[in-house]
UniProtKB/TrEMBL annotation:
<dbReference type="Pfam" id="PF02297">
    <property type="entry name" value="COX6B"/>
</dbReference>
<dbReference type="GO" id="GO:0005758">
    <property type="term" value="C:mitochondrial intermembrane space"/>
</dbReference>
<dbReference type="GO" id="GO:0033108">
    <property type="term" value="P:mitochondrial respiratory chain complex assembly"/>
</dbReference>
<dbReference type="InterPro" id="IPR009069">
    <property type="entry name" value="Cys_alpha_HP_mot_SF"/>
</dbReference>
<dbReference type="InterPro" id="IPR048280">
    <property type="entry name" value="COX6B-like"/>
</dbReference>
<comment type="similarity">
    <text>Belongs to the CHCHD7 family.</text>
</comment>
<dbReference type="InterPro" id="IPR051040">
    <property type="entry name" value="COX23"/>
</dbReference>
<keyword id="KW-1015">Disulfide bond</keyword>
<protein>
    <recommendedName>
        <fullName>Coiled-coil-helix-coiled-coil-helix domain-containing protein 7</fullName>
    </recommendedName>
</protein>
<keyword id="KW-0496">Mitochondrion</keyword>
Length: 110
């Protein structure tokens, strides 16, 4: 690992500039939440977060986004519970399977 040393003027301090890391590791929980195969409501989650950012975290202005996310979670949880009951694995359908389910249902039911 290569480092650069710079000396502060009129000082005994030495500043070491380390090269920046090219890969940034996220915590495992964050990685799982950002994985479209695990989180079926990723777009709804991102939309509600974006709404909060744009509206200075005024929750009342983003209630429709929260409701859409809640309904999304409810819908996919019911699908997951039905698959578990029927013995289908994985319990949560993959992104490709979810697209087929949504086409069969007639787009987004939430």
């Amino acid at each position: 690992m290569k480092c650069e040393e710079t000396h502060a003027p009129n000082s005994n301090w030495v500043y070491v500039m380390l090269p920046s890391k090219k890969t940034v590791r996220m915590p495992l929980v964050t990685q799982r939440l950002r994985d479209p195969d695990i989180n079926p409501c990723l777009s709804e989650s991102d939309a509600s977060t974006r709404c909060l950012d744009e509206n200075n975290y005024d929750r009342e202005r983003c209630s429709t986004y929260f409701l859409r996310y809640k309904n999304c979670r409810r819908f996919w949880n019911s699908i997951m519970m039905q698959r578990r009951k029927n013995g289908v694995k994985p319990f949560m359908p993959t992104a490709a399977e979810r697209d087929e389910i949504l086409r069969a249902v007639g787009n987004m039911p939430y």
